[in-house]
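Sample pair:
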Amino acid sequence: MNLQSHFILMSDYNQRMNSQIYNLVKELDERDVNDDRGAYFKSIIGTLNHILVGDLIWLTRFSKHSNRYRSLVDLSDLPKPKGLDDIIFSDLSLLLEARQKVDLSICRWLKNETIENDFDKLLAYSNTKGVVSKRDFGELISHLFNHQTHHRGQLSTLLNQMKLDIGVTDYLFEIPENKA
């Protein structure tokens, strides 16, 4: 398995799943989106913000890994979260706009700006508490996608409890069929 191809599929999956969730959530009333539903980040809007916050924190770190990563640098006009529970967009339409921009940047970055040996290097970064770490870059990208999937699973549960179906959630649909 080629890591770059795998991460491109993951970015396509990420984009599809976010689209499915936001298409459903934007039809809800404001109370349903903001009510504390007992999730890690309380509400639907809190969980959606947390996913975006995590992405922005990681993508800012990733943007420093190579001067080729222009799509990630271009996200610098978005808010700079300070904590994992920050509500950087309380307005769902602004959150959706930022989510779409980030998803498109992730896809562009992986398709056009990465090369296979990027993923075998270490990335040195500081976490939100200032603790410095050095970790395998490819594994950190896997973490980015796993984090998104984890919290979208929570959203799927919250929406299911409201009798709403976000549709097919399987990554399988991004994996091309081998006709040989």
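Residues 59 and 180 are 37 Å apart (CA to CA).
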